[in-house]
Amino acid sequence: AGDYKISSDITFDVPVTFAYGARLILDDGVTVTFNKNMTAGLSQIVEGGSVILKENSVSYPEWFGADKTGKKDSTQAIRQAIGCFPNGYGKVEFAAGRYLITDTITIDEAQSHLALEGTAHQTREISAQIVIDDELKPALHLLGATGGRSYDGGLEDVTIENMEFSRSKMG
């Protein structure tokens, strides 16, 4: 347990397991890459920087400080969890709860074959709710366009399951 400050990019080529209470504190612009399996509980294990998961197929917003009670902004934590898969081919799993965001979450065309999945305990249960605190912005933007124009087919196979996206107030 404890905080571990990392000031430059680092790659782990062995499996890594985080003990409860252990956190990586990354300087701005620092990337930590896990080439082998990385395991951790549903608590914050990373602050700052970015993480790339090569062998893991799942990341959790809680690893980056997301708050499933809806009381604190989870925008950056959700973006970091999605960013673990810069080339897609992964799953971001959300625990049951309400995640408050203050800006749009974007999945870009490089992140094909990505899944956003809420943990459902019963059939047809919506377990994860992403709520944007802005009456005009969308909560989720799937970016499959070139230069911001119409869809060109660049984004494929994005799955959203057992989740709800909404606004805290309507504009």
Gyration radius over CA: 16 Å
How much of the sequence lies in strands comes to 35-45%
**Contiguous helical run count:** 1
- SSE ordering: EEEEEEEEEHEEEEEEEE
Q: Round the mean pLDDT to the nearest integer and report it.
A: 89
* Global shape: globular
Number of strands: 17
Supply the helix-strand structural class: mainly beta
Account of the 3D structure:
By secondary structure, this protein is mainly β. It has one helix at residues 75-83, and strands at residues 2-6, 10-12, 16-17, 22-26, 31-34, 38-39, 46-47, 50-53, 58-59, 90-94, 97-101, 105-107, 114-118, 128-132, 140-142, 159-161, 163-167. The longest helix has 9 residues, at 75-83. The protein starts with a strand and ends with a strand.
